[in-house]
Write a structure and sequence with these properties.
The protein is mainly α and about 70 residues long. It has two helices and no strands.
């Protein structure tokens, strides 16, 4: 599982339904909830990421420089 920076809290909204025809209608609430708290975040867990909402979440982070 991919891993992001640790924070003080882990927030994950879930929605469950059984009719695939309702996908478009049902994904709005969890996406809206995450957009509201996103400014408070330090990262995200790729296994819990809705890549169709924000494909940039799958992008590799910029390389870091370290004193070696």
């Amino acid at each position: 599982m991919a891993f992001s920076a640790l924070g003080r809290s882990y927030v994950v909204p879930y929605a469950v339904w059984d009719d695939p025809r309702r996908d478009a209608a049902r994904t709005g609430r969890p996406r809206d909830a995450m957009h509201r708290v996103e400014p408070l975040g330090t990262g995200h867990c790729i296994a819990e990421t809705d890549l169709t909402a924000a494909p940039s979440r799958a992008a590799a982070p910029p390389p870091t420089t370290g004193s070696g």
